[in-house]
Amino acid sequence: MVETIQWTAGGVVMIDQTKLPLEAVYVTCKDYHEVAEAIRSMVIRGAPAIGVAAAMGVAIGVLRAPDENLDGSMEAICEELAGTRPTAVNLFWAIDRMKKLYAGLRGKSPAGIRAALVAEAQQVKLEDIAINRAMGRHGAPLIPDGKTVLTHCNAGALATAGYGTALGVIRAAVEAGKKIDVFADETRPFLQGARLTAWELQQDGIETTIITDNMAGHFLKSGRIGCVVVGADRIAANGDVANKVGTYSVAVLAKENGIPFYVAAPVSTLDLTLDSGDKIPIEQRSPKEVTEVFGVRVAPEGIAVQNPAFDVTPNRYVTAIITERGVAAAPYEESLRRLAGSV
Fold it and tell me: Is the pLDDT assigned to residue 145 strictly greater than 90?
């Protein structure tokens, strides 16, 4: 299985997801500015992976900062990393975790502070892999045997530190002996499904078919698909889910055809400060992602473009939310708070 991100003596090493599936290229981020740019430009993407990258970005930033201005450096590092992408709450969760640790280290030597932050960033990665495997164990029983699973975007090892959220559930179902195959929506305009999900599952030997986004309804009506499993970038307290744009359409079509729609995400993706998905900030990305495909223009010059990176699926379309602590079902205000340990 691919290793998405690694801490090394030379810097933070990531597989460049903009080059897949044609090339498996690794880049080394030697400072926090490079980590921030990697997140911003989607060299690394996927909410849990972004969280791990942010933690490592903080660690490498402080590692390179001068002894006499660690406090000021820490503030600047966190501010730049937090400004990279607005929707994925794991980014802010990881930065806050590193900030809290740093605050508790006051009075320690600069060397001690740096060592503690580096260790914490590596721990975030290890925890993420364990969390994904736990999610897989909770979610695998929900996957119907002998059917096709539809997924949208990439919520696999590439979107995490390893194993995956939605794809982790699929992997766990296969490991449990279930005979399933996968339909991967291509996921316009960035093609994460066609480029990344299909590549990952092919590496694992899991039978996978790419379909265009506008084919989902056709196949959901066909009777072939047993369930839909997707990841999430932020989940509000009421169970509204922000995920890659196009997810909402798939959820509505699944509901129309009586097919379960599952969301797999770690507890760190929950944002219980937001009472509904209406308050989730939606990232707007470059028009070029829509007007060009791999640098080739496919739309008229001067045409207006909208390019929201995410949409919000209302909770009424979500059959269940799979986390590392168990499976939440409606009413989500109660089940999510219980899983998050808030009550």
Answer: yes
H, E, C per residue of the chain: CCCCEEEECCEEEEECCCCCCCCCCEEEECCHHHHHHHHHCCCCCCHHHHHHHHHHHHHHHHHHCCHHHHHHHHHHHHHHHHCCCCCCHHHHHHHHHHHHHHHCCCCCCHHHHHHHHHHHHHHHHHHHHHHHHHHHHHHHHHCCCCCEEEECCCCCHHHCCCCCCHHHHHHHHHHCCCCCEEEEECCCCCCHHHHHHHHHHHHHCCCEEEECHHHHHHHHHHCCEEEEEECCCEEECCCCEEEECCHHHHHHHHHHCCCCEEEECCHHHEECCCCCHHHCCCCECCCHHHHEECCEECCCCCCCCCCECEEEECHHHCCEEEECCEEECCCHHHHHHHHHCCC
Q: Are residues 142 and 287 in the same domain?
A: yes
Residues 133-143 pLDDT 10s: 999 999 999 99
Residues 145 and 239 both lie in one domain: yes
Instruction: State the pTM of this model.
Output: 0.95
Q: What is the pLDDT of residues 252-263, one digit of tens each?
A: 999 999 999 999
Query: What domain range is 85 assigned to?
Result: 5-133
pLDDT digits (tens, 9 = 90+) for 228-274: 999 999 999 999 999 999 999 999 999 999 999 999 999 999 999 99
Catalytic-role residue among 233, 240, 271, 311: 233
Number of structural domains found in the chain: 2
- 174 and 192 both lie in a single domain: yes
Please say if 233 is a catalytic residue: yes
